[in-house]
Amino acid sequence: MFIELVDALRCPRTHEESWLVLATSRIAARHIQEGTLGCPVCRAEYPISDGIVDLRLDRSAPAIDAASNPRSANHVPAVHLAAMLNLADALGFALLIGDWGRHADALLELDQMPPLMLVDPPAGVAMRPGLSGVRADARLPLAAGAARAAAVDGVDATRLSSATMVTRAGGRIVAPAQAALPDGVRELVHDEHVWVGEREAPPSAFVRLHVRRG
């Protein structure tokens, strides 16, 4: 877990939003290998092991299995995924959810690649500099608008809606062609495997206008 991405993480429990507090026991090249994240609001603690933080409410439950989801990642080369997510510079970080994490190593070989956060990374994908891992429930434990882009591997409406919320306005979202387009996303293009959308800016609050007379 890249230490600079910790600020984007949030406690998955339902309460007022707060940053998490980090305690490390092993760190290398600014990537946390072992440690704990604690919530100052509810006092819950979440372990970091092998560079992956487990932010599930029930850590005894198995991680979400991508095997039952459309295997869209198999049909999209890493360089095409980088283009679809508009990863043209090293600013911010991008989310690779589930099976999309198989492209992580290949993406890091490209120029100007931002840090990648892998949610429920596939078996066999190890964390290394440039990669951070998170295990999560369907609702992603991230601050709103924290990620610059997200690739979602399944059709679960809750996870897709959550991925939309944590992607910044103007950021790209890639999802299987079978997935319904969530509110707040404008479709840019689609084929038989995936669609690519853009996160729309949320509506601004009403502004009360006062008219001066006389």
What are the segments in which pLDDT stays under 50 over at least 5 consecutive residues?
A: none
Which geometry do the CA atoms define?
globular
Query: What is the overall number of helices?
Result: 3
Radius of gyration: 18 Å
**For the residues shown, what is the average pLDDT?**
91
* CATH class category name of the domain at 67-199: Alpha Beta
Distance between the termini: 62 Å
- What oligomeric state do these chains adopt? single chain
The CATH topology assignment of the domain at 67-199 is Rossmann fold
Number of DSSP strand runs: 11
Give, in order, the helices and strands.
Answer: EEEEHEHEEEHEEE
- The CATH superfamily of the domain at 67-199 appears as Vaccinia Virus protein VP39
Helices and strands: which structural class?
mainly beta
Question: Helix proportion of residues, in percent?
Answer: under 10%
Question: Within the largest sheet, what's the order of strands?
Answer: 1-2-3-4-7-6-5-8-9-11-10
Proper CATH architecture of the domain at 67-199 = 3-Layer(aba) Sandwich
Strand fraction band? Answer: 25-35%
Largest sheet descriptor: 11 strands, mixed
